[in-house]
Every structure is written in C-alpha cells, then in structure tokens.
Amino acid sequence: MNKALAIVAATLLAVxxxxxAPQQPQQPQYRxxxxxxxxxxxxxxxxxxxxxxxxxxxxxFTLLEDGKRQSISSFDFENVDxxxxxxxxxxxxxxTAPDGALLRPAERTAALNARDRRxxxxxxxxxxxxxxxxxxxxxxxxxxxxxxxxxxxxxxLVSLATNMRVDLDFTDDKTKVLSALTSxxxxxxxxxxxxxxxxxxxxxxxxxxxxxxxxxxxxxNADRKLLALQSIMQTLGKISQKKAIIYFxxxxxxxxxxxxxxxxxxxxxxxxxxxxxxxxxxxGLQAFPPGGEAQNASLHGQSAYNGAAVLNDLSGNAASQxxxxxxxxxxxxxxxxxxxxxxAVFSQVQKDSSAYYVLGFTSTNxxxxxxxxxxxxxLNRQDLKLDYRSGYYAGxxxxxxxxxxxxxxxxxxxxxELSQTDxxxxxxxxxxxxxxxxxxxxxxxxxxxxAKDKDNATIDVIGEVRADGKFAVGHxxxxxxxALDSAQQVRRKNVQYNTGFLLAPGSYHLKFVVRENQSGRxxxxxxxxxxxxxxxxxxRMSSVVLSSQRVPAGAKKTSGPxxxxxxxxxxxxxxxHVFTQDQHLYLQYEVYDAAxxxxxxxxxxxxxxxxxxxxxxNEAAKAPAPKAPRDSVRVLTSIEFLQGGVKVYESKAxxxxxxxxxxxxxxxxxxxxxxxxxxxxxxxxxxNVVDDVAGNFAFPRSPILVKEPAPQSAAKSxxxx
Length: 721
Prior knowledge:
Immunoglobulin-like
C-alpha cells in the first residue's frame, strides 16, 4: 500500500488572536458547560412493623454531611405502588405508543414520564461467562417478567460482549421484554476471562512450555467492565427518579490500584445519576474441590495436595466479589452472592423503590477534592427506620485528579463528539512528498498565563488521524514543558507544536486536543485533510507553507528528514496567515519530477530561490550567469499579491535549473519577501509555478492579513517548537 508521511501542525491560539484569523472554520456544534452541584439522596422510611411510611414532609427530615447540617433545597415523594390502582398506564409508556427511548436519544419520539414508575435496567455482562451462566441469568430474568413484573415496572436490557449494546429500551410491554431475552444465546460470551499471572503453580496443566503473564490484560478487562457501567450511568442521568441496575456478572477482579480510577468514576457517575447498582454473582453457590473442577485439567505443581489451590480459589472468588460489593454499597444498592436463588434481587429492587423520598441539597463544602463524604439523615420521629446510602464521593477539579484520571480526561475529550473551547485552538496542515507515494502534512499554539510559572508550565497534546473519518491510522500523545524567559511580563504566549504521521494518499479527519496543566483548561480542533496522489496531477507540487519566522532547528520526533528544516534552520508555519508590516513573508514549496530538457542560458537569478536565497537583488543581477546543464530542469516561479481582484505587487521571476533534493526528486523553493511596502489589509497571495520544459503550471492561492506593527512594548511573536 502506498504510504505518506505527514507532518501535522495543530495551532492553538488565544481568543483575541484567532478572532483575527482569516476564514475561521465555522464550528457546526457548540458545547455548553453546566455544572450540577445538587446531591440527591433516596430515603426509604418504614415503621416498626416494616410498613412504608408515606406521609412525611420536608420539615420532618434533617440532613447532615460529615456532621454538618445541610439545607434541603428539593423534596419529592415517589409512590410507585400507586400505579397498581390508578388504572391503565399513560400512552407515552404503554399501549401502542413508542417506548421511552431513554437509552436511544436519537430515536426519541415522546418524552418518558418516569413519575411514579420503577426504572429497572438489566445489564448482562456476557464477557467471560460460561454458557451455563448465560442461560442461568437469562432464565432468572424471564421468570421475573412472567411471574412478578408489575404495571409500574419499566425494563430496559443492555448486554456487554465484544461491544456494549442496548437490546431494548425502557418499556412495560412484557412481550417485548421476553422476546429480547429469548434472543440471547449461550454463545454470547466472547472469552474475556481473566488470564494467568505468570506463575504455573496451581494453574491447569496445558502442556505448554511456559505460562503467560496476562496481568495487563486482566487490568484492561476490569476497566472495560467498569467503563461500560459508567457509560450507562451517564445515559440514565437524564431523569431525576431513582434507577436500579441489576448487574448480572461472574465477578470483576481488580489488580492492585490499577483499576481504582475506573471504579471511582463508575460509582461517582452512579451517585450523580441517582442510580443504585444491584450486582448478582451468577456463579451462584460454588464448591472448590482441591484438585480443581472436573471440566478442567489437573493442576500443575503441589497446590492440589497442600491446600493452596483451595485457598487461592477462595481468595480469587472473594476478590472478584469485592468490586461488586463496592459498587452496591457506594450506590445504595445490595449485592447478591453465594446463592442459587437469583429471584431475590428483583424482590429487593421492587421493595426499595416502592415508595421513597428524594432529598436534594447543595453541599456547603465547596472543595472538589474527590473525598468520600458521609451522609446522615435524621427524622423528628424516633419510631421510624431509615434506609439510605452512607455517602458519596465529591467531585474533583483538575488540581485533585491523579495521573490516571488526568489521562482518562484527555482521552475522553479526544473521543468526544463536541469539542471543548476553553482554550481556542486552530490547526493547519501541509503535505510534502518523500518519494513517489510518501508525503509530509504541517502545525500548533496555546495561550499561556504568567512567566512566574515557567518551572511547572506544561501542556498535554493528544491527536488522532482517521481515514475517511472512521478508522484510526495515526495517534499522537506528548507532554511539552514550556521554557519561558523569567524577564517576560506577558499575559499570553503562543507556543507552536509540530508533529508527523505516516499516511497514504486519501481523505483524513484530524483532531487535536491540548490541555494546559496549570488550570486544566482544554481546547480541541478538528479538520479534514486531503492528501492528493500527485502521480495523477500535471504539475506535482507540495503545499505552500507561509511563515514569518525562522528558528534554529531542534530535534524532531518524526521519522525521516523534516521538509521544513534546511541548513539547520527550521521554518515555523504561520497557520493564521496574519502578518505585520515589519515582518518578512517566508514561503516554502516544492516541485517534484520536473521534466528535463535542453534549456537556454539561465537568467542571472537562476537557482536563487532553489538554494534558499531571498528574492533577486541588484547584486545578484550583476553576478555572472551560471552555465545550465545540457539536460536540466527549468522551473519558474514568482509571487503575486492581489487585492480586490487587482494585482498590487509581483516579485521577479525565479528560475531553478537544479533538483535540490535528488533523493526526493524535489526542487525546493524558499522565498523571502519583506512586507513593509504593503498597506495593512487583506490580500490574496498567489504563487505562480511553471514547469517550462513540460509546459505544466499551477497557481495556488492563500489569503493573508497584513497588520500595522505592534507597539514596541507589546509582546514578541510566539516561538515555535
């Protein structure tokens, strides 16, 4: 397959700069940040006989957080049992009307009325389940629907195998629920069982030469399950009523602290969405014979004879249940272990959500430190028993995020469909060919704060390239330390970042995310890039790169030579195409596979641009003309500035008779034009390129903005990296 090496330059600009950039792309969608500080607490109240109490008022409750009294700002009572005697369900959730579409917002046809309804989501984690366990979990759900499902119950089905699917949205139609459950087969499990940890002792004998260490895979597998739960919570957060997730699983085994971040995120999302998790260990009541189960091979080593095998099985089983127990206790649910009666979980959910009070409050503790905050609910009556969750994890701002959470945050932003704009971002790209089918693409900048923070000033950059907007073909992840001069007294600074990808000619979608690690602000930019197959064009030419700055070349992470580095000097692309009158306009572009033929004697300015010189001067005109080779190329180029369709400036023509980069068959042009003669305003910069031997030509155009010079006290132009 033909490949192309692309240097992609993402430019992240301060708002006041990017607003002046010409032809700023219109963002089709916008993200509105809404921070909800309201904490909801579900309280079930029973008397001494276990009967539900339904006549309490807001003033009867007192709510404490870490011992401090909180003001109850919202109060509601959900009486699900009333629906049993209130007649038929409303048309929006029963009869011939569509289902609620809570989990499929794109298919929403009517709003779901969840008032006084019991919302139950059955989540089947088929990954790693045995066929017998799959049948057991599905049969338990079918039995509940057929015998104990009530009129107030709305049920949804979600499954996780190779991917997560919403198999049925919320509905009270028993026929639809049973039909969806019947579609599950014992082959749903996809073999995501935990692997070995590198030790053969106590493992089933396979006859292999060694035992693989699958610790990293096990960590990924646990994260996958927890992130699936978190995704469900975020979807269910659209309604305020209590939701219950019945989680059919064969256990989730954590590996040290590696899965703590995903577990914390899952429980925090559940509390925020007012969701309680009821895990069911579908393995049921298990026996652990010393020699292992009958369907497995005999155990390796001495574990079967000294009791270590049984101890390991018990420890592993307890560890896999510990995560499920944490999910239940931290969200106000209940875990069901070591029992073959799987119907008890449905009875518990119906009991907990028959009638309950919803208390809402805004915490007086404004710190977002991620710590667990203990809740206590009291009543002015001592004869009643309360049931509520013990607390919740506070939200965390960027300062309190650990390394894993920060990495997950930027990864989530990369995958998000709506871009953040706290940091204004602009990206540009340019391609350069390396050989017949290898190219180079080019950009980046970010606003910065105070020079006093130079010692710990870093930015995180992450990017992705997708072919046709679907398949990822390139990925970037880097952390850049900003080196600021302590004498600078600037409020903002633009820092440019260049990188590269190996790509084939075609259509690509680029997305870059940048995070400033002082405050955690992020910005994103997306753009489409087309890398042409130059073999199909008459004049094979690269992109035209415009710049106002040249810097000493530094070490590059891209493979192969960097096209913007010539003679140890790097050209820093000006992505916005905004210049001032006191700057020089540097242009660089390349022509490939120029035709060879007999040429007349070259003009005095031949090869000037091809060797990196400025536009021709009087001294160059007086120099003796070099003798052209017998069979040489002849490529002519000049620069024009147009304003309002009228030519206001044209440089002298430059002729190249040599191939500057023989390994890439490229004639490299570097043009230097001072801009002091141009008046402030918008211009169209046209590059004229003619292959005189072949008779081919190209006239690429780029809009530019020329401004008046900044005052002497203003900050200097940004440095490039």
